[in-house]
Amino acid sequence: MATIGEAARRSGVNIETIRYYERSGVVPCPARGTNGRRDYSEADIRRLTFIRRCRDMGFALADARRLASLTADLRANCADAQAVAETHLATVRTRLAELRAIEAELAALVQDCARRGRPCPVLEKLEEGPGKPG
């Protein structure tokens, strides 16, 4: 059994995040020792590590919880895990396309700023309100 500090160190999840995951039901609350402190089992630490890896890959907390629930029988639940991952992959690809567009716009502004100086193209663009042409 491990303390919350040890579970945090071994899983890579900070203590406050572990408490948040417990309150929100992402991970079950661990058993308490006779001293009233949380006692984390190896299974608890593996689940925390699993959730951290999901979050590192950008999965929403609800998706991480869903994926964690599928780990009991990996073969039987592979299709379900694949569906969650495919949805997330589509979201990541959309976000990458959005970031590439932002990158191109920023690069053009920086280049224009280097040529022009005043008025500053960066500040002009950021002052534009919604609906104004870019």
From TrEMBL:
Q: Which PROSITE patterns match?
A: HTH_MERR_1 (PS00552), HTH_MERR_2 (PS50937)
Read off the Gene3D superfamilies from this record.
Answer: 1.10.1660.10
Q: Which UniProt keywords apply?
A: DNA-binding
Q: Name one Pfam family in it.
A: MerR_1
Pinpoint the HTH merR-type domain residues: 1-70
What is the official name of this protein in its record?
A: MerR family transcriptional regulator
Q: Can you name the source organism?
A: Roseovarius ramblicola
